[in-house]
Amino acid sequence: MFVAEVNGIAGTVSRDGNKVYTMFVNPQAAGRGIGRLLMRHIEALAVVDGYDHMETGAGITGHGFYQRLGYIDVRSTETEFGFNYILRRNLP
Predict the structure, then answer these.
(1) Where are the beta strands (DSSP E) in the chain?
(2) Which of 3, 22, 36, 74 is the one with CA 20 to 30 A from 53?
(3) C-alpha dihedral, 21 to 26 to 32 to 38, nearest 10°
(4) CA-closest candidate to residue 56, choices 68, 66, 48
(5) pTM
(6) Do residues 23 and 34 lie in contact, with contact meaning Cβ atoms separated by under 8 Å?
(7) Mapping DSSP to helix (H, G, I), strand (E, B) and coil, where does residue 39 land?
(8) Alpha carbon distances (Å) from 82 to 5, 9, 19, 85
């Protein structure tokens, strides 16, 4: 897990290989690019580890965030909690 700090914990992200498992940005820190920095950090690590793409799951609230970072929909499913999107981004 990686942590971004700006006057306390601003965000966290974790990965396993090329899969994003958790991503959180403190609502008070939203809109400052912290999520983007965290994602780019783990993407760079994935490239070093030899992966050519990243994958993540997202609900409706996070879907647009990942799309703005260049992730594209691979598939979606409807669950009892709402839509779940699986997104992928090719890495350089």
Answers:
(1) 2-5, 9-16, 19-25, 53-58, 72-79, 82-90
(2) 3
(3) -20
(4) 66
(5) 0.91
(6) no
(7) helix
(8) 31, 28, 21, 10
Tens-digit pLDDT profile for residues 44-85: 999 999 999 999 999 999 999 999 999 999 999 888 888 899
Residue 45's CB is within 10 A of a number of other CB atoms, namely 14
18 close to 54: Cβ distance less than 8 angstroms: yes
Nearest to 37 by CA among 3, 61, 67, 7: 3
Amino acid letter, 80: E
